[in-house]
Amino acid sequence: MEALEFYSRGSRFMLNFVYTRICQKVQAVSHRWTYQEIPSPKNVVVLGGSYSGVHLAQRLTETLPTGYRAVLVERNSHFNHLFVFPRFGVVPGMEQGAFIPYGGIATTAPRGIFQHIQDSAVEITPTQVQLASGKSIDYEYLAVATGSWQPAPAKLTSTEKADACAEMRASQHRIQNSSRIAVIGGGPVGVQVATDIKSYFPQKDVTLIHSRHQLLPNFGPRLHEFALQALKKLQVNTVLGQRPKTVVDGVDDLVRSSTQETLAFQNGRREVFDLVIRCTGQRPNSGILAHLYPSAVCKSTGQILVRPTLQIDAGAGSPVNPHLFALGDVAKTGAPRMERAARSQADVVTSNILSMINGQSPSAIYRPVDEEGVIKLTLGKYDWAMYFKEESGRELMVNGTSKSEDLDVRRAWINLGAKYDPST
Ligand SMILES: Cc1cc2nc3c(=O)[nH]c(=O)nc-3n(C[C@H](O)[C@H](O)[C@H](O)COP(=O)(O)OP(=O)(O)OC[C@H]3O[C@@H](n4cnc5c(N)ncnc54)[C@H](O)[C@@H]3O)c2cc1C
Question: Where is the FAD/NAD(P)-binding domain (predicted)?
Answer without folding.
Answer: 43-342
